[in-house]
């Protein structure tokens, strides 16, 4: 897990933008994902939603679109900032939406390297 680390901004965006802007946002994330040479990820979330919940999950993502789809809340407008941890051990997303408007929601996404596919959707 990536915690308490400096971060390098990859892209800032939202899922309510023009198609070309959405494609550019997803492409920037895809480029950052290539550093990790995997399609399997572990995500931990802190301060999710109005109840400030925490949780974790494993998922597959080949590109930036799939990564965002795998971690961000669905069926709501999200504004987000995507970072590469300076130690390059993962990707971090700071997200805001109607149930978490103060940018307190953080997703820490780490690559999974082992060759086990069980339990990953």
Main traits of this protein?
alpha+beta, six-stranded antiparallel β-sheet, 19% helix, 2 helices, 121 residues, 6 strands
Question: What would you say this structure looks like, in words?
Answer:
The protein is α+β, with helices and mostly antiparallel strands. It has one domain (13-111). It is built from two helices and six strands. The protein has a six-stranded antiparallel beta sheet, with helices on one face. The radius of gyration is 14 Å and the shape is globular.
Q: How many strands in all?
A: 6
The domain count comes to 1
Unreliable stretches covering 5 or more consecutive residues: none
Query: How confident is the prediction overall: mean pLDDT?
Result: 88
Please tell me what the overall shape is.
globular
Overall structural class, as computed from helix and strand content, comes to alpha+beta
Biggest pleated sheet:
6 strands, antiparallel
Tell me the β content. Answer: 35-45%
End-to-end separation in angstroms reads: 20 Å
- Note the total helix count: 2
Strand neighbour order, sheet with most strands:
1-4-5-6-2-3
Give helix and strand order, one letter per element, not per position: EHEEHEEE
Radius of gyration: 14 Å
Question: Helicity, in percent?
Answer: 10-25%
């Amino acid at each position: 897990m990536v915690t308490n680390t400096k971060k390098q901004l990859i892209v800032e965006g939202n899922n309510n933008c023009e198609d070309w802007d959405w494609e550019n946002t997803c492409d920037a994330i895809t480029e950052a994902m290539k550093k990790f040479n995997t399609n399997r990820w572990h995500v931990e979330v802190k301060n999710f939603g109005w109840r400030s919940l925490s949780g974790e999950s494993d998922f597959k993502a080949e590109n930036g679109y799939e990564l965002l789809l795998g971690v961000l809340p669905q069926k709501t407008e999200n504004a987000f900032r995507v970072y590469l941890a300076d130690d390059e051990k993962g990707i971090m997303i700071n997200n805001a939406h109607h149930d978490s408007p103060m940018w307190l929601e953080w997703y820490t996404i780490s690559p999974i390297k082992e060759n086990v596919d069980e339990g990953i959707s």
